[in-house]
Structures are given as structure tokens and as C-alpha cells.
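Model: Ready when you are.
Researcher: Fold this.
Model:
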Amino acid sequence: VQLVESGGGLVQPGGSLRLSCAASGFTFSSYAMRWYRQAPGKERELVAVITSAGGSTNYADSVKGRFTISRDNAKNTVYLQMNSLKPEDTAVYYCSVFRPGAGGSWGQGTQVTVSS
């Protein structure tokens, strides 16, 4: 299993970023996908979840209305569109998949920094 995140960077408050996570090594279209984040000194936090076919999503209260998770099963890729970014969104963002019997798998993460 390989999960490779990209799209992070430095953005000003109020700006936008789109994260991507390219997946390989498993049947991507069969599993829900998740985005997590971890800020310095804080525990890892679940940000968003999308079901295997993309028909249902769920978000942390802190990002509702600002972030959108989506997926393209033809490209084995999950996305996180982040709008109206705030300094408190600064964190390393990870994508993850949990497969029953195989456990959880994580990418290496991509840094998002929101600062003026």
C-alpha cells in the first residue's frame, strides 16, 4: 500500500489549497478514505471522511463549510479542497485508509502553513 500526499504549502489566511493523495497497492474504490491532520504539540485529528463510492462525506466541526473531500476512483486519488484557511489549520495533513484484516495505512504527510 502506498499513499502519497501533495499540494501543501504556505498560504495567507483566507486563501485556498487543494491537497491530493494518490493511492496504490490496494483496490482503492472498495474503501473509505480519510484525511487527518496533526499540528505541532497536538494529537492527530480526523478532518474528513468519504465513503468508497463517494456518496457520503463527513467533516470535523472545525472545518465544516470550508473543506470539501472528494475522490476520483478512476485515478485512485482522494482530494481535500480547503477554502477560507485559518492559522489554526496549520498542520501536517495525512491521508489514510483502513482495511479490515490489514489495519490502517498512512501517507508521509504534506505540510500546510497558514500565515501572513
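Researcher: Now this one.
Model:
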Amino acid sequence: QVQLVESGGGLVQAGGSLRLSCAASVSTFSRNVFSWYRQAPGKQRELVSTIARGGSTNYADSVMGRFTISRDDAKSTVYLQMNSLKPEDTAVYYCFMSSPFGASSWGQGTQVTVSS
């Protein structure tokens, strides 16, 4: 079974930065698409960013230009660099993996809190 373990969340002041990591225990890491989602209290989970096998990326409009997703296939890890954080970025951030074989998996989530 695939395990995704997020880390790097925490409390930061508005304008600050955090880098989230998602370590995946899967032998076929390079074949998979990875995404970061977030869920704020009382809101639905929303897609933040996705990175495909070849490294192509996309972002939600709300984080475009501030967040950067990347992957290190050698380390089986996906990152989300978050700069210029805003209070509205406060949420639990989840890593999500989808494979070309139809499998998918969620991480346990990591809390990001941005104070004003």
C-alpha cells in the first residue's frame, strides 16, 4: 500500500514562506502524478497544484506566482514551496497521488497557519 507522508507545515506570519514535503513509499514514483490540495475549516477541499510525470505543472489562480510545486524522483518526494503567504492560505494541506494504473492515495495532511 502506498504511503504519503507530508511534513513542513507550521505557523508563519503573513508574507512568510514554508516548504511542504510529501515523501512517497512507492516504487513507481516517477510514473505518478502528484497534487497538493488544501482544506480550510468549514470549506471544501480544493486543488492547489499538480505536477505531472514530465514535470509540467498547474496552479490554482489563488496561488499562482506565489507557490511552486516540484518533484525529486530520485528521492520519491514532492515539494510545495509557498511564498508570500496570506492568512487565507491557512488550511490543512494534503498530498495526493494518482497512478496511470488507476490507483490513488492521500496523505494524512499537514497544518499550515498564517497569522496576520
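Researcher: Key takeaway?
Model: The mean pLDDT is 96.
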